[in-house]
Amino acid sequence: MSWGKRILRSLLLLAFLGSLLWAAISFSAQRLAEETEPESESASGVCRIRITYPVYEDVTKIEDLPEVQEAVNDITVEKIGVEVELVPVDMSGIQDDYLLWLGRGERFDLMLVRGQDIATYIDKDLILPLDSYLQRSAAHIGNKNNWTGGTLSRGAEMQGRIYGIACLSGQEANGYGLWISGSLLTESGFAYDPDHIYTLEELDLLFASLKERYPDSYPLGQITSGQTSSSAGYYTILGDALGRDILTGVVQNESDAVINPFETLEYYGFLTYMRQWYEEGYIYPDGVIYDASVLELLKERRILTFPASSYPGTFSQIVGKETDYVCLRTTEVSRQSGVDGYLTIPATSRYPEQAAEFLDLLYSDRKLAYLLNYGISGEHYEITDWERGLLEPVRDADGNPEGFYNPFARIGDISKLYSFGTAVDDIMRNSYVAGAENTATRYSGFVYDTTSVSRQIDDVREVIREYTPILECGCVELDANYTTFLNRLREAGIDEILADKQAQLDAWLIRQGLKSAM
């Protein structure tokens, strides 16, 4: 998506939001949905629910999605009397689309919220509390959530109610880094250590060497055109956002102080390097407007590195085949819950009960989970290692996945499913997880309720969307624009958000006996 189109869409979104009272959206949207959705039943009279299906432009192949949907319906019609319509949605910049779609009343019965704060939708009454539906129509999920101490709802609860069911990736640890061809590193004479954490200073030396050897290439593919938040987390740690969006403030080193992450020395240091690297020709110059496949830039060696998760096998899954790419780790690997978004029932749903029934089936029927995540066995994937639980996509004559390939769909609980990868990947993943840091902190159990500052959060988010793409690709003069950015954040109300989060954290710490009352 071009920069101009993103700006236009943001302006349209702001104009739309300004014309509504968000408190009335839930009612009006559902009413509009009922008036404008004629095909809510199949030809056989079976109820049809609409589900958002995540796709990723650079990775996903879904030519055979209709065939997969048919196989899904063979299961759901028989078991719960419900047909499913899988609606592909590109997960990059999806928050804009969701807010527009739901605001104008478009009907979805189940919606995946990923890569964004679920509180955005809770605060605006755009998704329904699930508690009653779980009791009536999703006994398996309810029981499993109770058995596991709330694993499936953790992070999606507000004011004692559950608003989402977690998608569990099975990935127990994560960190970030830059992926680069191993042959390039060898040619450049760079000494690669897979366990080393590379600092910005060390990357600076590498980029200088790469630029000297490959003057027509850009060492860093810092692509910010689709960015709606900060990419700083790929390179440095700004702090702990305590389970919410980073814009609500972070705590560093368990200090109990909620601070603005964009005012930290770490963030300014990150921006300083981005600006320096842009001026020295290390950063791809069109990163703020580039709207095509990043993989093409890598194949053509127009860019030489790309930031992503450092989890072993990540790049091979992005490309769809084995490569010689290795990861230069830029952050420590830390333990994580494996939560990769939440399945929610929007306020525009016509069939929330049936959506809950499907949700329950998804978490209890592995065949259904395999279909949604990997396609049809024997046609789209094959089991290559029963002992290790490994899969490989069925490939065409060129070695590319054929028909259906969506390795990052991660719908439902795939922690118990087999996964893509080789035996080497499996060994590396086990080592990766074993070496991860334990991230448990004194704040475990704290939930920040954003309700009272939802307007300020919207305003701050718009400022971040405007400034971080240009600041974080280094394409504008730093100090003046950075100062303006901080001032705009204050004008939008970030200090009110920080104060609200601080007050809630202090009160929680006192209740837990972790802090004395003043």
Automatic annotation (TrEMBL):
InterPro entries associated with the record: DUF3502
DUF3502 domain span: 443-509
One Pfam family linked to the record: DUF3502
Name of the protein this chain belongs to: ABC transporter substrate-binding protein
Annotated organism of origin: Candidatus Pullilachnospira gallistercoris
